[in-house]
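Researcher: Next sequence.
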Amino acid sequence: MTEIWGLTGGIATGKSTVSHWLHQAGLTVIDADLIARQVVAPGTTGLTKIVATFGESYCQPDGSLNRRKLGNLVFHDATQLSRLEAITQPLIQTEITRQLASAKARHDPVVVIDAPTFFEVGYLIDLVDHVLVVATDATTQQQRLQKRDGLTAEGALARIAQQWPIARKVAAADVVIDNRGTIAQTRQQVVKWLDTNKFGRSNQIK
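Model: Next structure:
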């Protein structure tokens, strides 16, 4: 029987690093961020609908989505974000459901659904047995996001505000990975979680 875990955290809390480690350890990881990019790639129904909704200016000269411009719009306007999610979320949900069904058909022992807005979208909680949250403090989160994406403080806070507060996610988690310290300390927690549950091969994490 397949055991299904949700993996989430706030933007720039270190979730992607943990997800990478779990993949290295041999766990099946369904990456909602990757799927979100795939469903709006050039030539897709998703991108066609986005252009029809928001305009041609949200497309790059090479035909790809202008992510920065669209992000600047939707993360400062809840109505526009809702319009975007009405296009993308059904497509993402369909692909996550398809990948999960494939993993179950293969009898994969553990599947991790990695999603930054795991709680916010609603439906994912019904697909999993447990939830693991990667957390850090608010100040560190903001600083990491500004540095990573080249954002102003205002821009970083606008993106953070679109997600549940970290404390709320932590309260709803079955397991919390504390990423306020060094990367080695975070890795040690992940290894312990894998070994305790006898998931994958923790010695393959680099």
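Model: The CA atoms of residues 8 and 133 lie 5 Å apart. The radius of gyration is 17 Å.
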